[in-house]
Every structure is written in C-alpha cells, then in structure tokens.
Amino acid sequence: MPVWLSVNTEMLNFFRYRGEHKEFYLFFKNMLGFTPRNTRLYQIAFIHKSKSLDMGKGRRVNNERLEYLGDAVLSAIVADFLYKKYPGQGEGYLTEMRSKIVSRANLNKLAQKIGLSQLIQYNRESQGIFKSIDGDTFEALVGAIYLEKGYKFTRRVIIDKIINLHLDVDAMAHTDWNFKSKLIDWGQKNHKKISFEVERTFYQGKESRRHYDVRVKVDDTPAEHAIEYSIKAAEQLAAEKTYKKFQEQGIIPTHTEESSVPGTH
C-alpha cells in the first residue's frame, strides 16, 4: 500500500490538535470549490520536510514527492491554457509566459493570496529559511488533486479557481521578468561579457532536493548570486538581483531614463 494511503492516526491527530481541521475543509470548499475525500493525501501536501512525520522503519512522510508531481502537472496545465488563449503567439512568447506564471515568486504570492500558507505545517523552530515553502506547497497541492481527481478535474480547478480569479495574465505579459535576457542584452550593448557560474550544489537535509548556487560574472568580475532548485531558476534570480543592483548604482538606466533616450524601448 502506498505511504500516502497507509499513514496512521498520528497525521489526523496532528491536524486536529492544532485546531486546523475545520480550516482545512473550508479552504477546499471556499477557495477550490470541492471537498476532498482522501483527506490523508491532501494533508500530506501541507507537510513541509522540516515537519516530516516519522512512520517508523526509516519512512518519513512530507510533501516533496507531491511537489515533484504537481510541478509537472501545473506546467502542463499552464502550457495548455496559454496555447489556447494566445493562438497567434509563438513558442518564445508562450514559454516566457508559462515561466512567469509558474515561477516560484508568483506561486508564493498565489499561495499567500488564497490562504494556503496558513495551513502549511513546518518546524517554526528550524533555523532554515524557507523562502519557497508557499510555492512548493502549492505544487504539492496540485499533485494531490491530480492523484485523486485526475488531469481534467485538476485543470478545471487551476484555471477556473486560480488563474481566472487570481491572476491577470494579460497584465503579466507586460511585466519585466526575464532579467537574464535583459542583463545579457545590456552587456552586449555595452561590450560587457555576462556569464553565469554554478559555484556549488548541495542538499539541505536527508530528503531535500538539490540546490544550485549560481553567480553572475561581468567581465569575469563576481556580481550577485542566487540559490534555487534548478540552474535555470538560479540564473534568472541572480540576473534579477544583479540587474536591479546595477540600476540602483546608476550603472544600468531605469525604465524611465531609457524611455527618454531616442531610439530605445
């Protein structure tokens, strides 16, 4: 029997004792429009690795496997949604829009907006900084819905209850996001060599996903760095931090300053 089906009463007591069982059901009914049947599966989706349940014999239960599954399902749903919403746009546009929607920063905001963050179980005494805990749990929730309800139901929930109600997709199309491309473009125009270097990879905890620490270099001079779950995401965040810092220092002109220069956009 799968672990997520064999979890014992420790899990249910874990939620009841914290007084969150009622809020758990209200979240699904009010925000997602359905009542879960397999409550144990969904409760696992809210358990961060720092609060893993020890099931004995080396088994520890948390939401990382569901997060992995939800990441893939969510990406497919968003890709499908954008493909149909923008029939005249090419691959590059659709790829960038999908990246904006499923970015960790955006998923963190979504999780907080819909009240998911309040249900996350994590070790509040831990010294770790869980900067992506909200977005990770959102993905785990998607994975749980998919396992119980299937793809079509999950797609309907994500589009009808999340994207259409809580995201202005058209407005997102006009927001700056791809700072890696912006930084590289700036470097080319100003004869600066922009490169990205993976300084280290590491794990936090026995069951953690791999982390990548990537640093931006400008003409081989170290700039900002960032840590994420993928090299691509770390490069993007490091580029954003570098680009914004250069703007603060006046090295890169702000959008207003760029707009005042003829021939720029």
Can you tag this structure with a few keywords?
single chain; 265 residues; alpha+beta; Ribonuclease iii, N-terminal Endonuclease Domain, Chain A; Double Stranded RNA Binding Domain; 2 domains; three-stranded antiparallel beta sheet; two-stranded antiparallel ribbon; 13 helices; 5 strands; 55% helix; disordered N terminus; disordered C terminus
Give the H and E element order. HHHHEEHHHHHHHEEEHH
The fourth-level CATH homologous superfamily of the largest domain is: Ribonuclease III domain
* Helical proportion, percent range: 55-70%
Q: What topology, given as strand order, has the largest sheet?
A: 3-4-5
Distance between the termini: 58 Å
Radius of gyration: 21 Å
Main sheet record: 3 strands, antiparallel
Question: Do you know the CATH topology of the largest domain?
Answer: Ribonuclease iii, N-terminal Endonuclease Domain, Chain A
CATH class term of the largest domain: Mainly Alpha
- From the spread of the alpha carbons, the general shape counts as globular
